[in-house]
Amino acid sequence: MKGRLERYLTGLWYSQRPVPMWLRALVPVYRAAAASRWRPSSECPPCPVIVVGNITVGGSGKTPVVAALARLLARAGHAPAVISRGYGGRGSDAPRAVTPSSDPRDVGDEPVLLARRAGCAVWVCRDRRAALAAARSGGADVVLSDDGLQHPRLPRSYEICVVDGLRGLGNGCLLPAGPLRQPADRLDSVDQVLVKQAGPDGAGRETVGTPFAVAPGRPYRLCDEDSATAFPAESEFDAVCAIGNPDSFFSLLEALGYRFRPRAFPDHHDFAEEDFSEMDGPLIVTEKDAVKLERLDGLPETWVLPIEAGLPDDVSGAVLAHVREFLRHE
Question: Where does residue 114 rank: exposed (0-12), middle (13-18), buried (19+ CB within 10 A)?
Answer without folding.
Answer: buried
